[in-house]
Amino acid sequence: MTEHIRKKDTIQSQIFQTVLALLAILLLALYILTFSHIHQQLGETGGIIILIPVILSAWVLGARGGMLAGLIVGLINLLLHGFTLQHGSIEFVSIIFGGIIASIIGWVTGRFSELRISSLLFGVDLSTDTRWHKVAELLRKRTKEMAARERNLLRTLIDNLPDNIYVKDDKGRYVINNMAHLRSIGLSKQEEALGKTSFDFFSDLLAKKFTSDEQKVLETGEPLINHEEEVLNVKTGKINWHVTTKVPIRDNHENIIGIVAVSRDITERKKIEEALKNEKAFLDALMDNIPDSIYFKDRQCRLLRMNRKEMEDLGVNDMSQIVGKTDADLWGEKFGRKTFIDEQRLMKSGEPIIGLVESRQLEGGQTNWTWTTKVPLRDDNGQIVGLVGISRGINDLMKAQQEREKLLANLSDSEHKFRTLFENLTEGVALHEMIYDQAGKAVDYRILDINPSYEKYTGLLHKKAKGLLGSVLYGIESPPYFEEFERVARTGEPSTFETYFLPLERHFRIGVISPKKGTFATVFEDITERKQKQKELQDKNAELERFTYTVSHDLKSPLITIKGFAGALLHDVIAGRYQRLESDLKRIADAADKMGGLLGNLLELSRVGRIMNPPSDVNLIELTQEVVGLLAGTIAEHKVDVVIQSDLPMVYGDQRRLAQVLQNLIENGVKFMGNQPNPRIEIGTRKDREEQVIYVHDNGIGVDPQYHETVFGLFNKLDTGTHGTGIGLALVRRIVEIHGGKVWVESQGKGFGATFCFTLSSNNITRKE
Amino acid sequence: MIGRPMTILLVEDNPDHAELVKRNLEEFQVANHINHVEDGEAALDYVYRRGAYSDHKNFPRPDLILLDLRLPRIDGLEVLKQIKRDLTLQAIPVVVLTTSDAEKDLAQAYEYHANSYVTKPVNFENFSRLLRDLGYYWLAWNKRPW
Fold it and tell me: Which of A549, A570, A591 lies nearest to residue B16, judging by beta carbons?
């Protein structure tokens, strides 16, 4: 509607102006007609000019203004001219009347202007809405708009500020609240807050506090600036921290009519501050309670800060006593110089020092050991501004370490000893570990280490043996003595056994010990030679036993005979019986002879080996002939044909003993001729695989193969019917063995004759012509 | 003792000793027959009635065996062992009569179940008395199941 009228205004303004001008001319004419005669002095122009302000005032100020202006003009007219005129004169009355007319003109004009009579009368606005009026209207409107705009701007501004902004009147009632504040008190529209107080939104306690704060501002006029307060956030139900500024608002008369408050939520900042505070508290607690020394230094290695431990170490109570000092000041030049160099390098390179073990001499002469880590401190730009160090006293640790090192040194010393022992033992030693299957059953073993003697005995080299499995070494699934090894490795009970180890064809004495469960060591000794010696000794012992046995038996035997027949003889003589006298006496004599012979032989046997004649070159042919000559009687008695081969060698040895050998063998041949009608004995030589064999062959009764060995035993007689002491062949063997040879008998058995053979060591035969 | 002739088998390689034993036993008339063999082989042949000893009449089963240990061919202990191992012969009392007083022989002889072990005394009087006592004991006093 307003739009419509405005349009009409502009369209009809031409007409309005025209009518107005006509009316003005009409009034002007009337005015001139009425006053022209009394206005001669002033002139009509003056009268009109006087009227102009009235009309203008009416336009602008409306009906009352116009009337007032008319009166004023009339009054001025009266004042200017009334004193010069006669009261009651026509001029005087016309002045009064003119004034009234001017007032009426002013009123009418103003009224026109005000009521827009034209539009009432003609449907066309021919009102007083003149340009001036319009301007005033416009100005008013503009001012209003501007105010509104400013208000809007302000509103927008405050609404968009994150801070809470509100205005309260002097009764504490909200007048303006910005959006932030509205939100903070749980509202969304300004209207909802108007007229409300803090008590409507906050707890009594809080509201009272706010109110009292505000009251103070209202009363004193002193603003409250950056006041921190706890505020309940209605929406979240949490207490937030606000920093608030409250400023009094004054009216034009400097009366305080309210307050404006700006409040900022600093909860986050508070939280951060709190966190920082906590962190600092933690850090302080940590630093002051940690048993290590912690310290901060600047680029010049001067102490900036340190924890309590460091202060204790330095013996100070107050940090300020040592701030700014260097290590040289605190610990002496020597130590200070060293750390200064380290720290400067650290700050230059940025590389931390980690776990550095340092020592410093204390006054008491003790050494103080520390374990130190230092890292650079950087500012926001990454520039190194100093360092932080942490040091721990490690005196106890170092002491323990030194003791351990000493122990280790001793240990390695003893390890060395054992290693030396291990490597120089004549016994072969091998360390093994058992290998178990998943079920925990021992299935194999592995060689861990062997010593040089082991290498020597087995021919297995260390580098090849190490790690070798028993099964691989022997090429069989269950290595030799496995059960025994397994038992020792399991129970830890050592074991020792002697064994003939077939792969090496030697006798070993094997000791098995378990240094640790699941492992075992074998210590073995080659006892082959000992075994051989043992065997020899056993043989000797057996012979000795047989010797003593036989001596006791064979010497006792003739004694029994002698004493027995002597007794019998005495018996017979007493009884006067003489028929057995002669034979009994012969028995006694024979027994005595036998005893004598036995004793002689025994003596001879004992001499062999004990008493040796110096060896010499011996011509066996000559020697044999000599022996045969000695035995000529016996040989002739038995009608034996003795043949000496001409190729008998030259030998080197004990001639007398060798003669005994030949003599015994030839005698034996003669003795065991049996019923041979053509007894024959042949002494000769032959080559048996590079060995010179000398033999005495007879065609007598021979020797059953089962007695081939026993015939050489002491006192072993095969036939009781023959004479002899059973010493002869034993003696032969003894002599031959002393000459490094062997003696044996070859015979196909009874009735086939016998060949007694002997060799001498190669030494004894090299001297053949 | 009465009615049946008693037979002693003397196993002795030394003829002199055998003669002494025989004379003493004969003197005391404890045995009717003394059969003498000189080695172990002959002793076994005798008890098993082999070879020359198959004639039962001349070589009857002995009532007592006097056994020397040191014998040619087959050792006395071996003879003892074989006799005592044989169920048909083990009941025959075997008295070891030897020169040896070696403990080894003594132990071995008893291990082979010798019934007695005596050594030949060097003293003649003792020798005589031993044989007389032996004869009386084993042939007169001792009870046999046959």
Answer: A591
Q: Do A567 and B127 touch (CB under 8 A)?
A: yes
Residue with tokens 């026993």: A710
Q: Which residue has the tokens 């007219």?
A: A77
- Per residue in A268-325, pLDDT (tens digit) is 888 888 888 888 888 888 888 888 888 899 988 898 888 888 888 888 888 888 888 8
CA B81 distance to own-chain centroid: 14
Tokens 């015979």 belong to which residue?
A747
- Contact between B99 and B120 (Cβ < 8 Å): yes
Closest residue in chain A to residue B13, using alpha carbons only: A720
A567 with B125: Cβ contact below 8 A: yes
> Which residues make beta-bridge pairs with B117?
B96
pLDDT value for B140: 83
CB neighbourhood size of A132 (10 A): 15
The per-residue pLDDT for A767 is 42
Task: Tell me if A568 and B124 make a contact (CB, 8 A cut-off).
Answer: yes
Over the Cα atoms of chain B, what is R_g? 14
Please indicate if any CB of chain A lies within 8 Å of the CB of B103. Answer: no
Question: What is d(CA A163, CA A243) in angstroms, rounded to the nearest whole number?
Answer: 10
The whole-angstrom distance between A758's CA and the closest CA on chain B is: 25
Is residue A127 scored above 70 in pLDDT? no
Nearest-CA distance A709 → chain B (Å): 13
User: How far is A630 from A633, CA to CA, in rounded Å?
Assistant: 8
Whether residue A592 lies within 8 A of chain B, CB to CB, comes out as: no
| Residues of chain B above pLDDT 70, percent | 95
Residue contact A560–B122, C-beta within 8 A: yes
Q: Give yes or no for A573 touching B (CB within 8 A).
A: no
CA dist., res. A50 & res. A476, Å (int): 152
Give the span between the Cα atoms of A5 and A129, in whole angstroms.
Answer: 12
Q: Do A561 and B100 touch (CB under 8 A)?
A: no
**How many beta-carbon pairs under 8 angstroms link A with B?**
65
| Contact in structure between A740 and A760 (CB atoms under 8 Å) | yes
* Residue recorded with tokens 């009054």: A75
Bridge partner residues of A169 (DSSP): A258
pLDDT in tens, A349-366: 989 999 888 888 777 777
CB contact under 8 A, A559 and B122: yes
* B106 in reach of chain A (CB within 8 A): no
C-beta of residue A343 within 8 angstroms of C-beta of residue A351: no
Length of chain A in terms of residues written = 769
Q: Give the separation between CA A627 and CA A658, rounded to whole angstroms.
A: 10
User: CB-based contact (8 Å) between A714 and chain B?
Assistant: no
State the alpha helices, DSSP H only, in A425-480: 452-458, 462-465, 470-474
- Smallest Cβ–Cβ distance between B102 and the set A549, A563, A568 belongs to A549
pLDDT tens, residue by residue, B7-32: 899 999 889 999 999 988 888 776 66
Give the residue among B107, B100, B102 at the shortest CA–CA distance from B68: B100
Q: Which chain B residues are closer than 8 Å to A564 by Cβ?
A: 16-17, 20, 124, 127
Task: Tell me whether residues B99 and A553 touch, CB distance under 8 A.
Answer: yes
Q: Using alpha carbons only, what angle is made at residue A193 by residues A190 and A195, rounded to the nearest 5 degrees?
A: 120
Contacts of B33 (CB under 8 A, 6+ apart): B5, B6, B7, B8, B60
Q: What are phi and psi of A318, to 5 degrees?
A: -115, 130
pTM listed for this prediction: 0.43
Q: Which of A689, A690, A649, A642 is nearest to A666 (CA)?
A: A642
CA nearest to A585 within chain B? B16
> Minimal Cα–Cα distance from B17 to chain A, Å?
6
Query: In this structure, how many other beta carbons lie within 10 angstroms of the beta carbon of residue A538?
Result: 10
What's the first-to-final CA gap in chain A, in angstroms?
174
